[in-house]
Amino acid sequence: LPQQEELLGRLFGQEGPRGGAAWEDASVRSAWLKGVHSMLQHQPALRLLCSTGGMDVIFTLQGDPSLFVASAASQLLVHVLTFSLESEAPKALSTKDCDWPACAQMIVKHIEESLQSSSASHIEQSLKLLSSLFGSCFGSCYAAWTEVLWLDIEKQIESFLLEETVQAQPVLANLLLNVARSPAFCDTEGSFWALVTSALEHLTPVQAGPLAVGLLKLCKCPQDVRIQALTVLLQPMDCILRAASQPLECAGLLDQSVSDPVTVESLLSSKTSCAGLLCQTLAHLEKLLSLKHLRVDLPCVSLLHSLMTILQFCNGFLSPTSPLGSTISRNLINCSRVQKSALDVLAALSEKKDCDTLIRSLFDVLLAYLQSPNTSPTVLKKTFQATSKWLVCLQELSSSNSQWQQTEKILEDVLVVLQKRLCSPCWEVRDSSLEFLTAMVKCLRDQKEFRQCLLSSEVLRLTENLLEDPESYVRASAVTAVGHLALVTCFAPESPGMGNQYNKESIVAKLQEILSTDSEGFPRRAVISIFTKWLREGCTGQLEDTEQFVSRVIQTVERDLDWEVRLGGLELVEVFCSQTICQLSQCPYAPVSSAATSSTPQNELLQVFCRAKLFGFLFGSLCDCDKPVGQRACDVLVGLRGHFYPMSTLENPQEIEDSPAGRGVAWLQRTLRQGSLAQNFSTDGDAGVDFQDPESMMLALGAIDLLELHDELNKSSDHVEESPQSLLQDILAAVGIIEDNGVDCY
User: Fold this and answer.
1) How confident is the model at residue 286 (pLDDT cuts 50, 70, 90)?
2) Given a cut of 90, is residue 609 above it in pLDDT?
3) With the C-alpha atoms ordered 283, 289, 294, 300, is the resulting torsion angle positive or negative?
4) How far is CA 157 from CA 105, 163, 196, 203, in A?
5) Mean pLDDT of 144-172
6) What are the tens digits of pLDDT across the range 185-230?
7) Which member of 313, 405, 471, 506 has the lowest number of beta carbons within 10 Å of its beta carbon?
């Protein structure tokens, strides 16, 4: 204990770091705070901190010019207060100072004095400290003293809301939200919620927005406060509707406002604040729409109408007659920030019901954006995303009320625009057009009307042409789109005339050529992903055809320099194994009894895998230089071993070398243990083991300890990758090995 107190005295006293010139360095001040924080687990340190002036230093560092130091000081005060109250305070605390531990008294007194200070920076520091304090004290064990602390400062906080001279409203909003989350205020009665209501009224719409959306996400919040919070969020949207309409034409979203509507109108009338307010409002609404359980009803139809109005303001397709509407329209024209935010909310709103009355008008707005040459590539991408979501709604709606003609007309209009966008000189536009096409096919491929519209357009031909696009991103997206289109044409059960055998073989050949020859990794990854999808969906024909298909893909993939392509090849192999076992065993992953290991299905299964050259690829991948590839290969082999040896009937290692097959497997075992299979491996049979011999592979699966290898591959490599030797090797590799560098590293 004496040595501890001496050390603490040096840390907290003037003879310590605080007394030297090094204190001018922010990193030293930060390190001092960390040191204090780490030592506060000991009671002597806590007492000494309060008696040597250490607390005053922390209070001063709250206003440090370094944000990192100021934040660390604030967090340290929170820690000191909570730790002292947990370890020293009685269970029942009162508002009397004598009941509180010394350190806690000092911090609370500092907070109260700062809140009453004339210094705006001191007020803001204390509000941030309180916000951090209530934000970190969620547990019920904190409820008693947090309530006492709040009651002590509540009147002062209320006065800040009413005083225009105090410029700390954003911090106040965050503080109130953190207090609302505290268990101490889960009761819906009391003065606190009246203060929250007052804040929603007095804060500006920009300041009140984060508080409002936070309140709406709370489980326990008075319903009248929830409604008021929602009203705050909807005020800008309500103003948009009113500004766009003739008098009495549209009543807007709200029956009444929380704050003065003139404030919102003023913000939307200003060029500098209009976009910012709308983007913040739209971001909050998108968050609310993503919640599974929203405890207040959203006026979805009016909200959709408001979103459409914003989008029309932005592209100049709406000419309002009111002065306010004209001003807002000028502020928003070609504002891509607002367009993207509105389209995000529009996409989220597609999952809500009762919006069908506006669906035709909505698609008019979306089509106008898709057609306009002024739509930027990023806004176009968002428009495509929203359109694909609403096309699903349109399809569901037409199925229920037989509005096929409207649906068909919209689909035709969308595909006409898509054809033009696929020919755009801008590669980003071509890329997002292909992504949109893929999304449409995924959602609508089972719909007869969609297939008819698609096949009667030029979309298929244009998409296939983009397989040769100069941009690799576009080629990759074209591969994905062509792969999904094939599910509608070539591989569809009721394949139309153009999806004949020639086209199927042509598409497969083109994708295999890309896998073999494309110089960029993105298109090759897309091909292997599509091949795996086709295999999952049973599009590759009978077992014999599938076996040949998989074999060709494996022989291409195993030579690929991109590890993600090789990893994709292993996923394809895993799917093939699963499907083949299911097909030949009549049950997915059906293990066979040890007595049946020589049965015809088992032999046939091994022969299929060997002919497809699976084992050469799998065992070769075990020593891949990229760890994820080796891990996946081992996972597949462990799965196969579990099928062929369900009762763990492994071969006796002593008997392995009694046959030519056994000697090859013994070589494979040794080579795998050395991790050098990649250097000694060849699928041509000169590696010492015949990977296409069923007997050898059956023996290998039983004899090689794949589980041990699995553990080794999954073991963390931090001890190698983060070692000093590894780091120095990286440095040498980067700067070049010359004599001076070598000496320094040594």
Assistant:
1) very high
2) yes
3) positive
4) 20, 10, 11, 13
5) 82
6) 776 567 889 999 999 998 889 999 999 999 999 888 888 999 999 9
7) 405
- What's the gap between Cα 485 and its chain centre? 28
Model-level pTM? 0.83
At 61-82, the pLDDT tens digits run 999 998 889 999 999 999 888 8
In angstroms, the CA 354 to CA 27 distance is 58
Total number of residues shown for the chain: 746
pLDDT bin (cut points 50, 70, 90) of residue 462 is: very high
Residue 189 CB burial class (10 angstroms; 0-12, 13-18, ≥19): exposed
Q: How far apart are CA 72 and CA 37, in angstroms?
A: 9
Which residue matches tokens 């929380």? 258
Query: What is the average pLDDT across 426-450?
Result: 93
The DSSP call for residue 651 is: P
Among candidate residues 277, 233, 231, 278, the one with its CA nearest the CA of residue 255: 231
Cα separation, 250 vs 211, whole angstroms? 29
DSSP state of 292: S
Question: 140: Cβ–Cβ under 8 A, 6 or more apart, which residues?
Answer: 183
User: What's residue 463's pLDDT?
Assistant: 96
Distance CA 37, CA 79 (A): 8
Torsion of CA 638, 639, 645, 649, to 10 degrees: 30
* Average pLDDT of the residues of the chain: 83
For tokens 């719409």, the residue is 205
Distance, C-alpha 119 to centroid of its chain: 42
Q: Which amino acid is at 364?
A: D
Q: Do residues 337 and 274 lie in contact, with contact meaning Cβ atoms separated by under 8 Å?
A: no
The two three-digit tokens of residue 381, written as one number:
């991408």
Nearest in space to 551 (alpha carbons), one of 586, 521, 512: 512
Quote the tokens at residue 404.
């096929």
Q: Helix count (H) and strand count (E) of the chain?
A: 38, 0
